[in-house]
Structure formats: C-alpha cells, structure tokens
Amino acid sequence: MSWLHTWSGLLLGWVLFAIFVTGTATYFRWEITRWMQPEIRQAGTPYDAALAAWQRLDTVAADSPQWFAELPDDRTASTTLFWRHAGPGRRFGRETLDPATGQPVVARDTRGGEFFYRFHFQLQLPHPWGRYLAGVAAMFMFVALISGVITHRKMFADFFTFRPGRAPLRAWLDFHNVTAVLALPFYFMISYSALVIFMTMYMPWGGRVLAGPESAARGSRPAAAEAWGASADFAPMLVLAQEAWDTDRAVKRIEVANRGTDRCTVTLTRADGPKISLNAREQLRFDGVTGALLDPMPPNTGPGTAVHDALYGLHLARFAGPALRWSFFIMGMFGTALVATGMVMWTMKRRARGGAGVALVERLNITAIAGLPVAIAALFWANRLLPVGLADRGDWEVYCFLCAWGFMLMHPLVRPVMHAWHEQLRLGAALFLLLPLLDALTAGTYLRAAWQHRDWAHLGFNAAMLACGLLLHVAAGRVHRRLGIAATATTVPAAAPSRA
Amino acid sequence: MAAVSSPARHRLGIAARTLAAVAGGYTLAAFTTTAFALALRLPRSEAVMVATLPSFLVFAAAVVWAFAARTAWRAWAGILAPTLAAAGVTWWLHGGPGS
Fold first, then answer.
1. Containing structural domain, residue A264
2. Which residues of A touch B31 (CB under 8 A)?
3. Which of A119, A291, A417, A461 could cross-link with A22 by S-S, CB 3.0 to 4.6 Å?
4. Domain membership flag for residue A367
5. Domain tally, chain B
6. What is the distance between the alpha carbons of residues A130 and A119, in angstroms, rounded to a whole number?
7. CB–CB of B52 and A302 under 8 A?
8. Domain assignment of residue B89, given as a range
9. A143 touches chain B (CB under 8 A)
10. What is the ipTM of this complex?
11. Is residue B86 situated within a structural domain?
12. Confidence band (pLDDT; 50, 70, 90) for A225?
C-alpha cells in the first residue's frame, strides 16, 4: 500500500501541483481579472448593465440564434457577451463590455483570472486531452488519499508530532502529514467532485446504455427556410426581475435561446446565493415572442441529481462569502504544500542511491514547484509591461508564462540541484515582491483610484502578491541555509549533474 | 507479498497488479455503472446520475484491492469476478439472449 501511495503520488505529482496552484488561484478568479484589467471600474447597477448588454447584442449579433450575457456584480466589473454565429456549426462570438457605456471595453486585452480557471482543468493542452489528464490526476489523487490514510494509520498521532529540528526527512514527513490531516475532508471532497464534474466524459457508459429521448431532442435547430420571428421587448422583463430581486443579489446572467423562432425563450438567472447546489439558482423564464412570464422549469429532482449538483457546487465554491472563500483558498494552499512535500520526500529518500531517474525527478520537481510561481509572476509582469495596443495581447501574456516556465525547465540542467532550487525561489520571491511596485509605476492612476474607492480586489491582490513573495523568500532562505551546510560537508548530495 | 523469489518476479507481480488496477479497475467501474443504470428503472437522467456517481469509488476500491491482495493472482481474480458479474447483468438487462 505504501508502494501504491509513493508511486501514484509521484507519477502525477507535477500535474497535481499545477492543478492545485491554479485551482487555488481560481477561487479569486474575478478579483484577478479586476487587477489585470484595471481600466474597468464598477459603475451603475446590474439592471443598467443588462439593458446595455441587450442593446449591444442586438447590434452585433442580430441574426444569432443564441445569446449569453454575464453581467457585473460586486466581484466583476465588466459584462461579457457570447453569441452563437448564425449558420451551421458551433461557432461563438465574444465581447467584453464596459457596463457604464455599453460599448466594448477600452482596456488591455487579457485572459485575466480566466487563465487560471482554464489551466486548472485543461492544462493548456488541446481539447479534450487536458480534461482527460486532469481527470487522471484527480483519480490518482483520490487513490493517493485513500492509500495515504491506510499507510499512515497512526496519522492522528503523527499529527501532533512535528520535529523540525530533527533529521530533515523526518521534518518533511511531519509537515506532509500535518498538511494532509489538517484539510483531509477538503481533499476528498475536491478530488471526488472534480471527477463528478466531468463524469459524463470520464464514465460515459451509463448514458450510452440508456439511449433515451433526451439525447435525440438535443441539438435541434430552426430550419433554414423558417422566417425570422421578431422577439419581445426586453425592458418589461427586466422590470419584473428588478421587482423580484434587489440589487444586492441581482440578475447575473441573460440567456436567449432559439432566437428567431416561435420557441424563443429568455432566461434571467440571479447572482449566486448562499445555496451550495448550483441547481438551486433562481431563474425567471420568459416567452421570447410574447414576453410572457413562463412557469419555472420543473426542477430536476432525485437524490442522484441532488448529490451531483451539491458536489459540483462545492467544488466551484461560488456560494462562499469572503470568509469561507479565504478558508477554501488556505486549504488549497495546504493541498499545494501537501503535493510539494510529497514530491520532495520522494527524491530525498532516494538521493543517496543516486541514478539518472532520481536526478531527473529532482530537476522536474524544481521546475514544477519553484518554476511555476516564476511563470505565474511572469504572466502578471507581462500584463503590466506589454504594450496596451498589442494585437492578441492576451495570448502574448500566456506565451510569456510558458516561456518563463520553459526557462525554469532548462535552468536546473545547467545548475547544481540545490543552487537551482535556491535561485528559482529567489527569482520568484523577487518578482512577486516587486509586483506591487510595478503596479504603482505602470498603473498608478488605477491604484490610486482603487485606494480612494476602497476597491479591495485591486488592493487585496497586491497584498496577496506580497504574501506570496514573502513565502517564497522564506523558502529560499531555508534552502540557502542547507546550501551552507552542504558546502561545508564533504559530499554534496545528488548535486553533480554529470551523474545524470 | 508472499511469493517474492527474485527481483524480476517481484517486478512482474507489480506490473500485473498495476494492469489489474488501471485496466481492470476501470472496466469494473464501467460495467457496474451500466448494470446499475439499467437495473435502477429510474428516469434516464436520474438513473445515469445515481449509477455514475459511485463509479469512481468502485474504481478506487479496485485499485486499493489490486495492491492489497496477497498475490497478483488473487488481485486479478478479485477484480475479474465482479467485472464478469456486472457485465453479465448489463448484457441481460440490455436485451439479454433474445437480442
């Protein structure tokens, strides 16, 4: 069982580490976007934004069969529009609006927090391979958790054993166990719900043997010959929503389906509330032709659906208020530390034995653990330094991220292991610690405005970057101390790249 | 592990267990899902939910069993037997010998 834990942990440790880091960041997805697009300030009410979104869609996507709009709330400042292009195929248009003017934003092009969200389960790989790899990683994690609990049956005793001064491996193991036990239910929840989110992709067989009418109905579209029907006026629907929902938790999403046909519907969804299940979202549905309020959709009931929706909702944690979201964030950080300590221990146990395999794992550990923060910092630096008018600017930010990570992959090949650790951690620390300064120099007016308006997304982001930098700085300091010890010792463990 | 006589044999045992865990475990999970989905007689979407949700638990249990069993033979037998049973139930409910 210990064998299973060690190897299943190692094989996907690198993927899991990246998933944990980006997933933890995703808890603050919209706040990250706000920092990466400081030009957009919050203005007006969601209802003004809804009307502006509708007018804009009417201009740019008049012949589209399907519209979506995501409206601003207390966490997001801009409106996002999607629409399906007319004609065959599933092609979509996309635009970001300034809610105040209803015009496309005059802001730097960026992926914002979306990048972390997408990377978390697609890993920057072509579809669908990223999702499959993420699923394999989630399954491995679930197995590593079970086998870890079996391996460390004494773990609740281990939990109170922390021996930082003792042999280094002992201290690492203690830390590994502490981070494991501290948030164990969270890890079980997060890995299993990850599998559940894409379960029809990973385990499609239940649906395959039960071919039913539901699969046949999907994908029906208006015949080309059908005349284009005009849709009802939007403003009265909005007035109804305004009466039902206050601006504290107002309309968040507009969806218009089957436009141009007599089956056209308009669905308004209220902003996420404190309910865990995503199915508990409040909605108003209207007939798109007459504008009449329709009966609510019959809720998809049944214990299976309820469990599924609850797990889905738990994973996304949209229901969480600031305090709970920070708790999730901290547990995500613990998970990151759990994976990292496990990977480091794997090499420490085998370092004395040496060999090409250990040398390779050690170097990949450096790239994954110390290199990823450098790459993320590079993404944020690129966001502030790339020219605002650059074409495909959002893509260039991602190239900077990938290039920085690539350099962090090559760097340990030409440096002794402990030096490579130290240098990458120091670089990451410096990049994060200087980020608020860069923000003040390149986006000073926005920073000042954020301070005046008590915009916690922008200010909190800078504070979080300082905290990340300090964390890396402390880690680098510890490696530096070990370097000092190693230099005085006669043998430098696994530090000779020639052995590889 | 009782029958470790040589490193090569040990490695072969591990390879056999790994295969049982990954391929055997997934197949078992897939067939228990189909068997449940067909046996539950629930509305389609609910049947798929109830049958698929626990499938990853079945998979994980199979993986743990593959490495906990005393010998690789037992590991394989313990996964193969319920897989065949679930496949049989699926075949029977999906149309059976008549189709």
1. 46-109+230-288
2. 205
3. A119
4. yes
5. 1
6. 9
7. no
8. 25-93
9. yes
10. 0.90
11. yes
12. low
The residue behind tokens 């005059």 is A106
H-helix or E-strand spanning residue A30 = helix A29-36
Q: Give per-residue burial for A315-349: e unless 16+ CB within 10 Å, then b.
A: bbbbbbeeeebeebbebbbbbbbbbbbbbbbbbbe
Contacts of B63 in chain A (CB under 8 A): 4, 143
- Looking at beta carbons, which residues of chain A come within 8 Å of B39? none
In the sheet where A92-97 sits, what is the strand order?
Answer: A92-97, A79-84, A66-70, A251-257, A265-270, A283-287
Name the pTM for this structure: 0.86
Phi and psi at A104, nearest 5°, equal: -55, 145
Contacts of A114-118 spanning 24+ positions with Cβ under 8 A: A114/A29, A114/A33, A115/A379, A115/A397, A115/A398, A115/A401, A116/A22, A116/A23, A116/A25, A116/A26, A116/A29, A116/A32, A117/A22, A117/A26, A117/A29
The span from the CA of A378 to the CA of A338, in Å, is 25
Which residues does chain B have within 8 Å of residue A304's beta carbon, measured at their own beta carbons?
42, 46-51, 53
- Whether residue A446 lies inside any domain: the answer is yes
pLDDT in tens, A10-47: 778 899 999 999 999 999 999 999 999 998 877 777 88
Inspect the interface and report whether the beta carbons of B52 and A199 lie closer than 8 Å. yes
Task: Find all residues with CB under 8 Å of A287, minimum gap 6, and list them.
Answer: A232, A264, A265, A266, A293, A294
A283 CA to chain B: closest CA distance, Å?
A: 21
Query: pLDDT tens, A114-135?
Result: 999 999 999 989 888 999 999 9
